[in-house]
Amino acid sequence: MPYHVVQHLRDETTKLAPTSLGKIHPLNKAPIIEHNGHIICESGAILEYILDQGKNDLRPDKQSSDYYAYLEWMHFAEGSLALPVITHLLMQMETRSGDAPLDGYITKELNLDLSYIDSILAQRTYFAGAMFSAADIMMTISLEIAGSLGLLENRPNIQSYLARIQDRTAYKKAREFG
């Protein structure tokens, strides 16, 4: 699928998304795609839309045993993992003491999620089995943020997984865009 990337750089002072995004979508957030008259935001929706446009080599066949693992991880990325990871990031930016009730809850959820993920990756090369899929794309960003926060130090399977992902040619090409 041919594409053209338009970068909308954050405001240097506020670090917020630029108002130019609001001209494309009322939420003024990225990522957003425009294609054939459709304007779509939300990472998972964008991936599903792209997969629907062509060959589905990033989505297991619905008849395969890996399909339901694919579905789980496509939704786990933003439905379960992203909230505690982003909350932890924001709490660090706030320089919290770590003893508020929410802090304990977030720590518990992060440990639960990351332990589960690490145990799954001990058994599989990728989230949906042996095949790289869109679920891996969805999971990578939150796992990379978790790594940057020092949350993966005792998670060897997640670390190995991220190294495999980061070694992919497509990943390196995507990183060129920022």
Automatic annotation (TrEMBL):
Keyword Transferase attached: yes
Domain GST N-terminal: 1-58
GO molecular function, one term: transferase activity
InterPro entries: Glutathione-S-Trfase_C_sf, Glutathione_S-Trfase, Glutathione_S-Trfase_N, Thioredoxin-like_sf
Keywords, sorted A to Z: Transferase
PANTHER family: GLUTATHIONE S-TRANSFERASE 1, GLUTATHIONE S-TRANSFERASE-RELATED
Protein name per UniProt: Glutathione S-transferase
Species in which this protein is naturally found: Pseudoalteromonas luteoviolacea (strain 2ta16)
Native organism taxonomy: Bacteria, Pseudomonadati, Pseudomonadota, Gammaproteobacteria, Alteromonadales
